[in-house]
Design goal:
12% strand, binds NADPH dihydro-nicotinamide-adenine-dinucleotide phosphate, 16 helices, Rossmann fold, 9-stranded mixed sheet, globular, 54% helix, 329 residues
């Protein structure tokens, strides 16, 4: 049975005497650093000297080069881009690890696939918010929080579990619920969302746009109907709050019937075979190996696909729509 931890399961005093070094002051780094400081923790920042470094200083943090922050901190949050972490870890962080320190990751990728191998005498912790950084901060400021996956993967200090729960509390996750799952499960589920759910939505929208505009519908109206009004994201919110099926009464009966009757036509049960194939590719590390290769070659496929997406006419129609209608969410 899955364990979900709430505020009452965690004690911030378990972090007494700890200095948290947030390494990487980007999307997650900034949000988590601000939340932890507001929760009363001693937080410093490590970053390369760039605009994020300046931002951390502007936000009032003692900010250092990465190696210096790694030296000063007892709990190190590794919040660098995943593809950067192994290299920076070896050169700037590993030399400053001491027995009993802790490493905290917001995504299991490098640990799960073995691209980064911490020494045995430090704690290794997963604290992975299921939310983009901006909202990790905004929700905390509103008195609530973003849910997170948590796991004390390696307990060298004997206090990894207490540290994990207290850190989850400090970023606001236990206000709503911190769910215990392994690095493996977090990584594979995260990739599944990225390899199936996100692309199926964006592909359905792009192909619908192409067909509808080819068939003479007004491009701006197509975009407004498909996603640009913000209705889709409000429905997604209702799915999270009320439930996938329970939110149906928000829609007209005609809409409900249309949705239910077309669901299996657009995606019959046989598609499960394809879904299983995607999961297996993730489990067997097919994607991880491909992504490593892509990085080594200088991102040729990534660049080509991004260029193609940016050149798609939908971008120009979005721009035209924004001149006429300004959506505020
Ligand atoms: P960002 O892309 O925002 O980058 C984090 C920081 O790393 C930035 O300060 C960035 O500087 C710095 N950086 C970039 N390149 C280098 C480099 N070569 N050497 C040293 N520092 C560098 O990362 P995210 O916050 O998106 O991701 C951090 C972790 O959080 C990852 O493990 C990710 O999977 C995880 N995560 C991210 C989520 C999100 O909301 N994006 C959601 C949940 C988990 P600069 O700003 O100058 O580029």
């Amino acid at each position: 049975m899955v364990r979900v931890f709430r505020d009452e399961d965690a004690d911030l005093s378990d972090l007494k005497g700890e200095r948290i070094a947030v390494i990487g002051y980007g999307n997650q780094g900034r949000a988590q650093a601000l939340n932890m400081r507001d929760s009363g923790l001693d937080v410093i920042v490590g970053n390369i000297r760039d605009r994020s470094f300046a931002q951390a200083e502007e936000d009032g943090f003692s900010t250092y080069p990465i190696a210096e922050a790694a030296k000063r901190g007892t709990i190190l949050f590794i919040l660098l881009p995943d593809e950067v972490q192994p290299r920076v870890f070896e050169s700037e962080i590993r030399p400053h690890l001491k027995p009993g320190k802790a490493l905290v990751f917001a995504h299991g990728y490098n640990i799960h696939y073995g691209f980064l191998e911490p020494p045995a005498d430090v704690d290794v912790i997963l604290l992975a918010p299921r939310m983009v950084g901006k909202f990790v901060r905004e929700l905390y400021e509103r008195g609530t929080g973003a849910p997170a996956f948590v796991y004390a993967h390696q307990d060298a200090s004997g206090k990894a579990v207490k540290r994990t729960l207290a850190l989850a509390k400090a970023i606001g996750a236990t206000r709503v619920g911190a769910m215990e799952i392994t690095f493996a499960e977090e990584t594979e589920l995260d990739h599944f969302s990225e390899h199936f759910i996100a692309p199926i939505i964006s592909r359905a929208l792009i192909l619908s746009y192409e067909v509808l505009t080819e068939m003479g519908y007004t491009p701006e109206a197509v975009l407004l109907e498909l996603y640009a009004s913000g209705e889709l994201s409000e429905v997604a919110k209702a799915m999270a709050v009320d439930g996938l099926v329970q939110q149906l009464p928000l829609h007209s009966r005609t809409s409900q019937y249309g949705q239910l009757t077309y669901a299996e036509r657009v995606m019959p049960d046989e598609e499960k075979a394809f879904i299983r194939q995607i999961v297996r590719e993730i489990q067997e590390g097919v994607f991880a190996r491909e992504w490593q290769m892509e990085q080594q070659l200088g991102y040729p496929v990534f660049r080509r696909l991004l260029k193609k997406a940016l050149e798609h006419p939908i971008n120009e129609d979005e721009r035209r729509l924004k001149e006429k209608i300004s959506i505020k969410m």
